[in-house]
Amino acid sequence: MIPYRVWAEVDLDALSSNLAEISRLAGPGVGTMLVVKADAYGHGAVAIAHHAVRCGVAGFGVGTSAEALELRLSGIRHPILVLGTVVDGEVPALLGHNVEIGLHSLDRAHKLQVEGSRAGLFARVHVNIDTGMSRLGVRPQKALELMRAVHEASHLKLAGVMTHISSPEGAMDPRTDEQVRIFEEVLEAAKAEGMELGTVHISNSAGLFTGLHPLHDLVRPGISAFGILPGELPGAEALQPILALKSQIVFMKDVPNGRGVGYGSTWRARGDRRIATVPVGYNDGVSWRLSNRGEVLIRGKRAPIVGRVSMDYTTIDITEIPEASVEDVVTFIGTDGDERISVEEIASLAETIAYEITCAVGRRVQRVCVGGQDLILPSQRPTQQASSPAARSYEPKVSPPADPVAPRVRR
Ligand SMILES: *Cc1c(COP(=O)(O)O)cnc(C)c1O
Fold first, then answer.
1. Both ends of the chain: CA-CA distance in Å?
2. Where are the beta strands (DSSP E) in 14-164?
3. Is there a common fold for 12-225 and 243-341?
4. Is any ligand 1 atom within 6 A of the Cβ of residue 160?
5. 318 and 296 in contact (C-beta within 8 Å)?
6. Which numbered atom of ligand 1 lies nearest the CA of 223?
7. What is the spatial distance between Cα 300 and Cα 316, in angstroms, rounded to a whole number?
8. C-alpha to C-alpha distances, 196 to 117, 139, 150, 151, nearest whole angstrom
9. 36 CA to centre of ligand 1 in angstroms
């Protein structure tokens, strides 16, 4: 018996391997700030971050203050940067937990200074320079002034300087050259004034995999660590998918010719068909757009999603898999036998980007970590070996059951 309606298997060995590849591409002396916003793109930030620490990452980037605090409270002591922006009310908790904050304006710098001096703490900030994304960040013309203000303030510390590349094609897009040029100009001007910049970082996954340079001190990959590259970028073959989304058949029924299935009867049986009902819906991460389009794997074979995906249930035509039975594993993302359904395949069917597919894996989906015993990064220190007691204290708090998929799958 499988103890979950629906679960997401997160392969920590594949994560180790992807982080090693990222580290190899980044080159010596360039650290990894793993981006784990949106619950690590739906994979479960706490377990991902604890394993990434064991793999030697330098720190974490998150999207919101709550995400930063969740990691701190789970025991992560590495640097954590709120990449975007925060709201005033969140600042005291962030300072109290030594969370680094992206800085975009003088106004915010003043507020952080006030809060820092009130608490008797340093606000560690990364000045974000808008070199072309036009979303967040200070204009390049104002960047130096902001950096000087940080240096002059008694309770601010310039922990880093960053920018963000807007093109999904990274360095393959000529517009990226322009962003890099603007960024370098600001850095040069700051260095000419003898300013300490902290850690300088620019590259996301797209930049890293297309050879953006210079990378400076840190790279900020997200999606590639999870085994996915946006678009048709080179180097995807060196990455391993880490996510599988699975459920089980809870109900089967034979429907006669002409019978409609699901809301709106958008699918009708042609001839006698057998339908399996699976307790996974769009709330769990199976896009509504996969209605009458997507496929799943059952007993190593593909079977079509028929009718509309609903909030809690999906219906599958299993007529061509007569051996299928209740409690069979149903794979929405991942491998079963020789067949595999990738996040990229689903994203293309659902006419969206891979990011949205993994982020959509819902709260009701149990995250189950597999692997993670073998650490393969050269940056491991001996005290972090899996066998040492120190390493055991780093075990993810989301503890996986011994065998999440029971014996049924391996028949
Ligand atoms: C999300 C994000 C990243 C990571 O981007 P990927 O495309 O997932 O590698 C890096 N930097 C910033 C500022 C981000 O918001």
1. 13
2. 31-35, 59-62, 80-82, 100-103, 123-128, 156-162
3. no
4. no
5. no
6. 8
7. 15
8. 21, 20, 11, 9
9. 9
Pocket test for ligand 1, best of 15, 41, 83 (most atoms within 8 A of CB): 83
Query: For this structure, is 111 an active site residue?
Result: no
**Given this model, what pLDDT does residue 403 score?**
43
Mean pLDDT of the chain: 91
pLDDT > 90? residue 95: yes
164 lines ligand 1 (CB under 6 A): yes
Catalytic residue among 4, 37, 142, 157: 37
* Domain positions in the chain: 12-225, 243-341
pLDDT at 393 over 80: no
b/e 133-147 (16+ beta carbons within 10 angstroms → b): eeebbbebebbbebb
Nearest-10 crossing angle of helices 140-152, 174-192: 40
Handedness of CA 367, 370, 373, 378 (dihedral sign): negative
Kindly give the distance from the C-alpha atom of residue 305 to the centroid of ligand 1, in angstroms, as a whole number: 32
pLDDT tens digits for range 218-239: 999 999 999 999 888 999 999 9
At the topology level of CATH, where does 243-341 sit? Answer: Lyase, Ornithine Decarboxylase; Chain A, domain 1 (2.40.37)
Angle at 62 between CA 61 and CA 66, to 5 degrees: 145
The CATH code belonging to domain 12-225 is 3.20.20.10
* Whole-angstrom distance, CA of residue 115 vs CA of residue 329: 53
Q: For Cα atoms 132, 134, 139, give the angle at the middle one, nearest 5 degrees.
A: 75
Q: Which atom of ligand 1 is nearest to the CA of 208?
A: 9
Q: Write out pLDDT tens, residues 360-376.
A: 999 999 999 999 886 55
Per-residue pLDDT, 248: 98
Which residue blocks in 97-173 are alpha helix, DSSP H? 106-119, 140-152
Q: Is 37 part of the annotated catalytic residue set?
A: yes
Nearest to 212 by CA among 26, 10, 364: 26
